[in-house]
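Onboarding guide, step 5: your first structure request.
Type a short instruction followed by the sequence, for example:

Predict the 3D structure of this protein.
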Amino acid sequence: MTFSAPHILCVNPWIHDFAAFDFWAKPLGLLFLASILRNHGARVSFIDCLDRFHPQADNDVKVQADGRGPLRKETIPLPRGIAGLSKRFSRYGIAREWFFHDLETVETPDLVLVTSLMTYWAPGVKETIAAIKTVYPSVPVVLGGIYASLCTTHAETTTMADQVVTGMGETVLEDLVRQHTGFRLTPSPAYSHLEELPWPALDLVSRLTYAPVMTSRGCPFSCDYCASSFLQPDFQQRSPDSVFQEIQHWHVNHGVANVAFYDDALLVNQEALALPLFEKIIASGMKIAFHTPNALHIREITGQSADLMFKAGFHTIRLGLETTDLSPSRCHDGKVTGNEFSAALGHLKTAGFDSSQIGAYLLCGLPDQSLSEVKASVLTVREHGVTPVLAYYTPIPHTPIWKRAVEQSRFDLEKDPIFTNNALFPCLDRGMETKSISRLKNLSV
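The system replies with structure tokens like these:
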């Protein structure tokens, strides 16, 4: 135990998967905690196992114009339970020896915080913590994040973490630090709303080719397949002034030219947040490309919002369509009705967006979903002149559709989250899977 300023190491773990890519992905939750810790007296280090620009990486790391790029990968054995598949499985991120070197080089921490994202990336989390424990066997390791919150028992019993925390980390951070180091953060951090949080410690990232920005938390909708309302029951929004100042900071002080909004509901309540934010960006003259990987709510796209997004510099528009079955009997969500999809596309194109900039997410592989329905949706989206983007369904615990997924899946989803990997199409019949999905992929290109 230490009563002097503790050294806290934050770690973003490896990914174990069939495929992975840096789609504007940063461990934002962990970097929020790092920022809070620094602001309240702790010393902080950060090791990113997904660092594309690690000092030992090749100098010719590929960076797309929008800041994205491929992750380094190394083939590893398939996990138990799916070992019979012919697909290649990989560890994505820095080499093992690089990670051990980083762990051995950094000052011995008093506490290690590890984050987690996809539930089926649990094996990567486990390997990361095992490596940390090899170098620091007596240092407490605390695991948080989405996987930890959704699959808590699995995380507690398989990852070697000394403690698994659920929910928003800032609400328990002070107690964690005091419990494991004896240090009291000063002044006491009291954050009950997203607006109160400091900006994430993106300056700890080795090279910023884009900045993720979160203007809101949670979502006012409760779609059957989504865990957003479980993970963040309250819908919270920041002020446009706060968001603008953050974007301006990363652009002016760190040269960031690409910004990805991490919101599930960027345009909701747009008169109070999105519209004044876009107007501030336009008035500033900043040359930034904005991207919406988490999708925009289609019914919120008006002529005004589309025009302001275009003038502000939005480059990548993703729409949360999910299906083109817009009948009253539509299952699983109620985000789009009637002619809202066509109207939204009309607004976007009138504003000046090219069809190549617009993609519509379509869910594929839901329980009881026919592939003919997905095919019809793909064709309809193509007829509208925009890109269909297939989003393969991942069964997620604590969602309304989870029970049905468990009943229908050919895997024991409750036994191990590895079986929820969307690349396995867990709720589709294996015999029809490969050829049918392959044809859908070809249609969507």
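Each response can be followed by summary notes, for example: The mean pLDDT is 93.
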